[in-house]
Amino acid sequence: MKHATRVTALLAAALSTSVLISQVEQKTQRFPQFDNEDVKVWKTIVMPHQPLAMHHHDHPRVIIALTGGTMNIVEPSGATETHVWETGKAYWLPAMAPNTLHSDINAGDKPMEVMVVELEKEK
């Protein structure tokens, strides 16, 4: 009986560990790709309904949808701008006005994966 209890406890521990790992893997993630004096490039995987922290973009950027979907860009006031990004297409987003913030929220039920190319300086 002790052996069965031990096996059950080990299985429960293994299952809870795999649940924790799958929860960690399902968070929005940002992966730096390239950075120099002209551009900064990163890949982001945006999980469904997980808002990114409020942030600001000083520079214009190109978004390339590796896995498309619907992204809501939300201001602190609640004003929302909806963007439908198709897989394989590129989109231009201008620099943000000074002293403004926004959050990005994947409005779909599947993760979105985008490559962001942000210009570092005005030409």
Give an overview in words:
- This is Quercetin dioxygenase-like cupin family protein.
- The chain has 123 residues and is of the alpha+beta class.
- The chain contains one helix and eight strands, in the order H-E-E-E-E-E-E-E-E.
- It has one domain (29-119): Sandwich (Jelly Rolls).
- It is 20% helix and 41% strand.
- The strands form two sheets. A five-stranded antiparallel β-sheet has the order 1-2-8-3-6, with no helix packed on it.
- Strand 4 (69-74) and strand 5 (80-85) form a beta hairpin.
- The longest helix has 24 residues, at 2-25.
- The chain is globular.
Offer a few descriptive terms.
123 residues; alpha+beta; Jelly Rolls; 5-stranded antiparallel sheet; 1 helix; Quercetin dioxygenase-like cupin family protein
